Amino acid sequence: MKLVGRRQELSELAAAWERAADGSPQLAVVWGRRRVGKTFLLTRFAQGKRAVYFTATRQDSEDRQLRRFAERVREQLGEDVRDLVPESFADWEAALRFAVRLADREPLLLVIDEAPRLTSGRSDFADVVSAVWENRVRDQRLMLVLSGSAVAVMEEMLGPHGGLHRRATVERRMDPFSLVEARAFQPDLPPAEFVEAYAACGGYPLHLGRWSAERDMEENLAELAFTPGALLLRDAPDILSEDLDWRGGYERVLTAMAGGARRRSRIAGRAQQRIDYTLDRLRRAGYVRAVRAIGDHGSADPMYEIADDYLAYWFAVLRDDADLVEGGQGAAVWRRTIGRWQTHVGKVFEGAARAHAQRLVSTGELPPEAIVGRWWRDETVEIDVLALRDDEPVLVGEARWQAKPLTERDLTDLRRKAAHLPRAEAPLFAFWSRGGRADALRDHPDVRLFGAADILDDPA
């Protein structure tokens, strides 16, 4: 299978391997939530190298993990080491010290996937790695890669109080692909249809790979989301369970946000709990982002939103009715959640419009010093896309996920919103719409029109 994207990650790992082969040991840490492609990337990277790839399993005893590790070393390094490898190891320090010795003369790549699962009541795995790295590793030709899907745990390992703090030579977090990056997984889909596919699947390679260009949107969702056991229906809890134990009320907070609560007080009210710790952990793990109005004259209070488009879809559309879908009533659930689906796609499209405006800055179509974001003032007005240069608006924009053409009334409404901005003298007005159609607005020299193809940088 072809590796899509991840050029920077591969480049960093390849450079580290070269240093290790020259006698400068390398410790790399690669982390990110499930399904983002960590295992695929690392197995591809290990090909053609003298390598051991070990995946820790859930709920296995430490003794069982150590026995499995010894088996993998024998299987993957073969006859050269078969007689040297014990039946098992006394502990993880002994296992790692053995791996260090194997790299005395020949380069060795050791990948330990899902490393957080190796922390037990007897020892913290990160502390064990740190001790071995400090006391046993000198000039061996070893590259050790630790990977994990428990994002918050991995970042704690690397943080100021973690065992891996300032130990790793490579630290790389892998997030789901952005809309433009993910286009490579479905290059034949028409642009607007791809936006819909991404809104349901997010930037996860497995999900996007299952979306069929031979089916329309409704048929794909029927197969992937509204059928008992469907991938999109069941994958979100698995992704979240790797990082969250649910005792902190994480699901209630995410459900409140998916239902439209964006301010801290409203999220807490809907979730019916204190949310300071929960919200902080969700932010650090990348599930939630805080958004602030850009410029000096917008609302001072941040808004919060689910940062992962697939998880936002699951919470907004699928979560509350998952039992009905599993019971065979997916078609009925689809019909009564169409409105929520369209609202969700609109939010994804709005985020894509802001990302496109940022690219307009980088390509010189907007001033190079302009910053792009959103703007709101209390409950009175909200602007989807705003570009500021020294607090002066240079572009005021709106994203509309609609098939019908834009009209003069839409432009009038956007100008009215812009009037709330200070120093809004002569900005460009921009609309991003599903088809980019707005014949009625084409005679306005201060109006720019964009469609889904523009957002994807697709000339079609």
Automatic annotation (TrEMBL):
UniProt GO molecular function: ATP binding
UniProt keyword terms in alphabetical order: ATP-binding, Nucleotide-binding
Annotated DUF234 domain residues: 314-403
ATPase domain residues: 5-208
Pfam families, A to Z: ATPase_2 (PF01637), DUF234 (PF03008)
Annotated TM spans: none
PANTHER family, per the entry: ATPASE
Name by which UniProt lists this protein: ATP-binding protein
